């Protein structure tokens, strides 16, 4: 089930906005396709990202995937425990597996991203 309280990028990152802070992670669909996660690299706090910028990568036993910012903003927090326990991404990608928090200005919106229903259609098409 795809949570309806956030927006989704075609590259399988999610964004959950709370005021001027956007929490970012990857979806369960992405985790399932990567399987057996082994390593995660995340940006430094203070780094400025534009929507679509590469912010890190996640590795599994079968692939390395780049991670892309679904929105632009300043990195104000990274989920440090994931460096030692990348399995949290796999076990709870929409909760404890969040990756970073971005400070966005008031004009930054999630309008260019898909809602849960559109994302479910997207992953159904990708699975065909």
Structure description:
The protein is an alpha+beta fold and about 130 residues long. The chain has three helices and nine strands, in the order βββαβββββαβα. The strands form two sheets. A six-stranded antiparallel β-sheet has the order 1-2-3-9-8-5. The chain has a three-stranded antiparallel β-sheet with strand order 4-6-7. The mean pLDDT is about 95.
Key phrases:
9 strands, 3 helices, OB fold (Dihydrolipoamide Acetyltransferase, E2P), 128 residues, globular, three-stranded antiparallel beta sheet, alpha+beta, 19% helix
Please outline the helices and strands.
Layout: E1 7-8, E2 13-18, E3 21-26, H1 28-34, E4 37-41, E5 48-49, E6 54-60, E7 64-68, E8 73-78, H2 87-91, E9 100-103, H3 116-127
Antiparallel strand pairs: 1-2, 2-3, 3-9, 4-6, 5-8, 6-7, 8-9
Q: What Rg, in angstroms, do the CA atoms define?
A: 14 Å
CATH top level is: Mainly Beta
Topology order in helix (H) and strand (E) letters:
EEEHEEEEEHEH
Q: CATH superfamily, called what?
A: RNA polymerase II/Efflux pump adaptor protein, barrel-sandwich hybrid domain
The helix tally amounts to: 3
Strand order across the largest sheet: 1-2-3-9-8-5
Number of folding domains? 1
Portion in strands: 25-35%
State the shape.
Answer: globular
Find the structural class using helix and strand composition.
Answer: alpha+beta
CATH topology: OB fold (Dihydrolipoamide Acetyltransferase, E2P)
Q: What characterizes the major β-sheet?
A: 6 strands, antiparallel
- Tell me what the CATH architecture is: Beta Barrel
End-to-end separation: 18 Å
The helical percent reads 10-25%
Question: How many E strands?
Answer: 9
- What number is the mean pLDDT? 93
Poorly predicted runs? none
